[in-house]
Amino acid sequence: MTLIQVDLSSVCSMKDFHDKVHIALDFPYYYGRNLDAFWDCLTDLPTTTCVEFLGVDSLPLSLQQEVNRYRELLQEFQGTGRKGI
């Protein structure tokens, strides 16, 4: 299993979030920076990949809420029943 930890503690905007995710998960240059694109690129990763978002609790509440939508997709990806969006 490959563990990828993405430290989000310094994120100030969704642009920052997508920049960090794009780099940490080695998403392609055409990553669309939205939930659909996140799911599409995530499902291209090996199924043995485990991704953790660190520092979410230190984000402003509005960002936490948005990031949690991405966390839900991560849980689906890492679980057995891949549903997606």
Describe the fold and architecture.
The protein is an alpha+beta fold and 85 residues long. It has a single domain (2-78), classed as Barnase, Chain D, CATH 3.30.370.10. Helix content is 44%, strand content 14%. The chain has 3 helices and 2 strands. The chain has helices spanning 14-24, 35-42, 61-78; strands spanning 2-7, 49-54. The chain has a two-stranded parallel ribbon with strand order 1-2. Helix 2 runs parallel beside helix 3. The protein is globular, with a radius of gyration of 12 Å. It starts with a strand and ends in a 7-residue tail after the last helix. The model has no long low-confidence stretch (mean pLDDT 92).
Helical fraction: 40-55%
**CATH superfamily annotation:** Barstar-like
Numbering strands along the chain, what is their spatial order in the largest sheet? Answer: 1-2
- How many discrete structural domains? 1
Strand content: 5-15%
What's the number of extended β-strand segments? 2
